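We both want to read discrete structure tokens more fluently, so let's practise on a single case. Would you write everything just below, so we can both look at the same thing?
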Amino acid sequence: MDPEDLVREHTVYACVMGSRAFGLATEDSDTDRRGVFLAPTPLFWGFEKPPTHVDGPADEQFSWELERFCVLALRGNPNVLECLHSPLVEHVDATGRELLSLREAFLSRRAHETFVRYALGQRRKLEADVRRHGAPRWKHAMHLLRLLGSCRDLLRTGRLVIEAGEQREPLLAVRRGEVPWAEVERRMNRLGEEADAALAGSPLPAGPDGARVEDFLVRARRTSALTG
């Protein structure tokens, strides 16, 4: 089966991500679409397996096969976890609804490590831009601040909220380059320290509920085998 046909015919969940989902869109913002498809179980029986992810078929569209998506979410991958919490859902079927019902099963204190590690990698890129060009990519700086704030609040409350909310205007000011880099660094440091402080008393469990997620995946595979 053509990889793009897997997305067209077997998507269980699709949403809009990026600036539009974060409440930070401007007139020139792209529409980033993310999704999850369930490859028919018989495709796994031969030597050639279905892809773990697919680019397309539309521009700015990326989808994961269900198993790969669950593995990444259990590991606390920030981009994948945030997909489950997009306010802009474009498609969901019965399997997708059950996936969404498992959102809390994926969340754990591991998010502190994965979100902060990802943030550190992005910050190094921004610092490299400052050294080379005298200024960071302001859009990326804005998104990094949003991510750090989301991580802190997740650890504090046990809930992952990706929308900027009342931080929209301060974050857009960063995107416009109206906030000095030194102040952006100060905010990043503060958010990182607050996330560290929230870890010990976080209501999140130490690890995700992998058994619950695996049960869901096995049932989805079995249903696909019986019907497809």
In short: The first strand starts at residue 11 and ends at 17. The chain has a mean pLDDT of 95. The CA atoms of residues 6 and 36 lie 10 Å apart.
